[in-house]
Amino acid sequence: MTEKIRIAVVGAGHLGRFHARLLAANTDFQLIGVVDPDAEARNALAEELHVKGVDSHRALLDEIDAAVIATPTKHHHQIGMELLLRGKHLLVEKPLAGNLSEADALTECATAGNCILQVGHIERFNPALLAVQDKIEQPKFIEACRCSGYSFRSTDIGVVLDLMIHDVDIVLNLLNAKPIRIDAVGSCVLGPQEDVANARIVFDDGCIANLSASRVSYEAVRQMQVWCPQAFLAIDYANATAKVARPSDALLRGDCDVRRLSLTEKQRAKERFFDEWLSVEQFAPGSSNALEDELRDFSEAIQHDRLPQVTGAAGRDAVAVCEQILESIAHHAWDAHPHSGIGPRGMQQPDTIPVPPVEITSPIPHRRAG
């Protein structure tokens, strides 16, 4: 495709506005219009960008080649299916859908229609992750913490599909393995869905991922730590920085026995620990516009008929794991009493999360996410 890609943004809310403004300035795209049932929201954005403002995507079907879906999650499936059935390429904000069956339908429809289906897992384009991703080999333990204040957005889904899914997607992308057991707890604070959650995921290659997420936190945190046989990596997504620590050859060989060191040798080891025993390399790749990079990847996937960095299948797999996390949360009993609270609304004091979570040994049936 050599001509500009004619595109619409469906959803004129927080993310939709960012998408629309970047698309309007991107020479690969021609922004045709913005769609939103809220007249005030769509008209304000349409006037700003000098494009059409309509209340339904159906009004633009004959004028576009592609669309960005930035609506509440509950609308992703219906709107996405209608657009895919008309042969439109899609970038769908995460999560791809509110449950696995809807995610499966979208990916299958995109494949059948030879349409690009990209999912907006924007952290895949974070410069800190990109700077060290090729240094992550055979991870054995991954810990991630993703916390924010309450945004009053995405209230149709809980924190698992809202925030934790970012780290679920990254972990699945780093591993060539499948989850075999998931233990999780979660609690509601402000709404009917969980606002705080912790999940421990065991993979069939022996790796364990411990993921925590909160959208009612007084502190914003987006961090991940990865333990590999030859290196330890710390990634700060918020500040776009990363560190890689590698043991010395002597440490790997087991030549450094701290029990045999003299007092003088111990003092020297303390002073030179991160020079002689563990070397630390710091990465500060600088700021970049990850959303702009994501849209560039979408454009190149369409123009060159290649897979995007975050495929519909990857988005589908993240939803599948999140469903199992939600199922574990739903079955968690907060104490041993026969009539105790069960699930995310069962804890009397929702500001604390017990650790470790209850071990679940029986298979977990799928539960509809959201």
Quick summary:
By secondary structure, the chain is α/β, with parallel strands linked by helices. The chain has ten helices and 14 strands.
Looking at this protein, list some descriptive labels.
370 residues; Dihydrodipicolinate Reductase, domain 2; 2 domains; eight-stranded mixed β-sheet
How would you characterize this protein structure?
It contains ten helices and 14 strands. With 370 residues, it is α/β, with parallel strands linked by helices. It has two domains: 5-124 and 289-309, 3-Layer(aba) Sandwich (Rossmann fold), CATH 3.40.50.720; 126-286 and 319-331, Dihydrodipicolinate Reductase, domain 2 (2-Layer Sandwich), CATH 3.30.360.10. The strands form two sheets. Strands 8-9-10-7-11-12-13-14 form an eight-stranded mixed beta sheet. Helix 3 packs parallel to helix 4, helix 4 runs antiparallel to helix 10 and helix 6 (159-174) crosses helix 10 (312-331). The longest helix has 20 residues, at 312-331. The chain is globular and about 80 Å long. The protein starts with a strand and ends in a 39-residue tail after the last helix. The relative contact order is 0.15. Mean pLDDT is 89; it is low at 349-370.
From the N-terminal CA to the C-terminal CA, the straight-line distance is: 38 Å
**Which oligomeric state applies?**
single chain
> Major beta sheet, specifics?
8 strands, mixed
**Overall helicity:** 25-40%
Give the C-alpha Rg. Answer: 23 Å
Shape: globular
Q: What is the element string, with H for helices and E for strands? A: EHEHEEHEHEHEHEEEEEEHHEHH
Task: Specify the CATH class of the largest domain.
Answer: Alpha Beta
Global mean pLDDT: 89
CATH third-tier fold name of the largest domain: Dihydrodipicolinate Reductase, domain 2
What is the strand tally?
14
